[in-house]
Amino acid sequence: MDAQRLRQKYRQFRILVMGKANAGKTTILQKVCNTTDNPKIYDSAGQEIDLSAVTPSREWGEHNIENEIIFEANPGYIFHDSRGFECGSTKEFKIVQDFIEQRGIEGASWKQFHAIWYCLPTDNASRLLTGVIINESFAVPMIMIYTKFDDFVLQTQQFFMSQGEQEEDAFEKASLLAPNRFTEEYAKVFNKTRFPPLMDDVSFTYYIDMDKPDANCDKLLEKTADALGDDTLRQLFVCIQKNNLDLCGKWGVKR
């Protein structure tokens, strides 16, 4: 199926982005879309929301999970943000759950979710946002993204220094071992939460120093493409990547 026919069927690739405020979601979406600009926001009726009166502390306006977030630099994506979803909040969990289920029964494939990105800041690993579940009847891939991982590296460095390591040696060791330490000590908590994820549908990835100009989300894009079970949908996802020739080559998608 060529790119034009893909767009006629799906129009855009739709992603639900989960995670609390200040979890690094904005930076990731900007990197994915190769822009530093803010997105345009549209309500459920397709009307653009005027952000000129929004204060900086209220990012992207009044939160509504139905709102569509689109970056002009790559309009092939539609994002929905579940800001407000907190561990133990039954109300917010129900909003997200109902929204996922409602989108899952949409007749038009382009209105359904195609993937979920769940951002978890690791700057305070002992208080990780947890408590997400994916309904078994709604099988879309979910990628867990651990953000602010540079802070966790520094925490790991402090841990090694407390064990007698010198500062420079401790940092080098932490840079190598922080991912494994995080997995062993924190990532496994998802199996014990009130609303554990369906682990068969979950992939894990890490990001460090996402605020740096040369940082990218290639690993996230690759994991998302790998997780998609529908070849046609995967081709759409790969087609809308504007600067990732390696991903196009891997899946044999012609630009």
UniProtKB/TrEMBL annotation:
SUPFAM superfamilies: P-loop containing nucleoside triphosphate hydrolases. It comes from the Eukaryota. InterPro entries: P-loop_NTPase (IPR027417). This is G domain-containing protein. The lineage of its organism: Eukaryota, Fungi, Dikarya, Basidiomycota, Agaricomycotina.
